[in-house]
Amino acid sequence: MSTPHHDADGTAVPEESRGISRKNLIKAALLAGTVPLVTGGGVALARDRAASAPARGLSATPACQDGDEPTVPNIEGPYFKPDSPLRTDLTGGGMPGTPLALSGYVFGRDCRPVAGALLDFWQADDSGAYDMNGFTLRGHQFSTPLGAFTLTTVVPGLYPGRTRHIHVKVQAPGQPLLTTQLYFPGEPRNSTDAYYDPRLEMTVRAAGSGEQATFDFVLDVDGTPPSTPPSTPPTTPPGSGTWAPGTAYAAGAVVTYNGVTYRCVQAHTSMAGWEPPNVPALWQPA
User: DSSP letters along the chain, please?
Assistant: First the structure.
């Protein structure tokens, strides 16, 4: 099935037709609320392996590869802005364009979900323009305890030199930041865009008057979901003080850590592993 903005022969290959894989089996288990545990080098999620591995002597889960390596980086481009709002709906309740519902998971290289991962999205509107004055079509969120994320947006428009794409920064707690882009299959400009990478194509299909897309990020980290996911921070930043885990910080908050002063650039609730020096997407030296 071609999407409204694709050529007739630009059909994406449905994910379910790509065969059974370890990652797809895990995704099916997450959706069903059950977790497969296969001994002898099979599938096991962190929440089950953590309890069963010491007793049963299970070997480590193999690398999370369905023929893919960890998600590759792609350029940030000139339109990134810090301090995006915490939200999963970038449209603000409606705007011109083809509705797009994007969903997926954040996995570690061991095929276990990464909970509490920061995902910061930004994109052009239906006409191909970026909002540089406000935060239209910009927003960040955190993956769920099962590593899942959802995004409500519109299909980005075209502008000179680029094919359709969505920008994103992804960061597991206390780990390096991945900056990359997501692309649409079957786009005529894919072949002429110098930054297009087929490894970053989403799976896209028509859904009523809009489109549905899926993409799973594989980070070069071990998937270790925390027991408590980040919560929505208050709108008023806390005052200056010493950084501490479990504290809700809003953009603009100033803290000290190991004698260095940092300013919060992304609203979040702190947690162990997200100390200011470790997460440049959240804290910058003041």
Answer: ---TTS-TT-PPPPGGGG---HHHHHHHHHHHT-----TTT----HHHHHHHHHHHTPPPPPP--SS--SPPP----TT--S---B-SBSSSS--SS-EEEEEEEEE-TTS-B-TT-EEEEE---TTS---SSS-TTEEEEE--TTSEEEEEEE----BTTB-SEEEEEEE-TTSPPEEEEEE-TT-GGGGT-TT--GGGBPEEEEETTEEEEE--EE-SS-----SS---PPPSSPP-SEE--TT-EE-TT-EEEETTEEEEE-S-EE--TT--GGG-TTTEEE-
- The predicted-structure confidence for 242-275, as pLDDT tens digits, reads as follows 888 888 888 788 888 988 888 887 777 888 888 8
| pTM (2 d.p.) | 0.64
Domains, the chain: 15-22+62-218 (2.60.130.10), 241-285 (2.10.10.20)
Contacts of 43 (CB under 8 A, 6+ apart): 22, 25, 26, 29, 36, 37, 61, 111
According to the model, what pLDDT value does residue 23 have?
63
pLDDT, position 238: 47
Lowest mean pLDDT among 14-28, 70-84, 234-248: 14-28
Residue 62 has pLDDT above 80, yes or no: no
